Amino acid sequence: MRVLFIIMFAIILSYVLLYGALFGAFLLLHWLLFKYNKTGETKTFLKFYSVNLKLGARNYITIFILAVFSICAFLLLQQLATDFLADKNVEGNVELALDNFGAYLVYVVIICALPAFVEELIFRGLIFNFVKNMSDEKKIGVWFPILISAVCFAIFHWNFYQTIYQFILGVILAFVVYRAASLFAGMVLHFLNNFLVLSVAYIFGSSSSPLIWNAGTITCMISLALVGGLTIYTLTKTLKGAADATRN
Asked: What pTM, to 2 d.p., does this model score?
């Protein structure tokens, strides 16, 4: 038991150090971008998107529903990408070893909690906010920074099997942060998304067999994505606090 605890602690510590180094690298890049921009406005360095912890019960409920819909709406689309890449013998799809509760708890920390905190600070707190500030000056609109941060988010994970889903999730997370005017909303949604996927894999198993792709399956996939996407967009628009909120 003591050996298991030491191993779990070592794994968690290694991920903390890894994410700490990654966050530090992005902070340095962020500083350089501000230091050497044309206007020289270094005073805006480290101006994160607002982290408002007081989201309210309604927003928390909406975010939980969004987490469920974000998974279900694009489940078949993700399965299509997985089956296609597996058929092409593309490597990179790693199944988690969820054979005991201890491993599950470790994964809750390194797959759910740490990424939700650090990745939101980087991709929505720094990248989205940085691009949005430039977009506001040029009056481009909010969808440009949303898409840019989503592309960076998908590329960062470097998993061909999940690229499409990670991009879609990145769009949803950025839009949620924007509508709720709080980076914490993205952290909550990010955590819930990873936690629900992990918990389902732990309870029911993570292995899945290829689907039979025909006209019916593809029609179902498209319909699910369209209806789910519209529902997600509508739910996100109901989040309180949106576009007119002040930044830190």
From this structure: 0.79
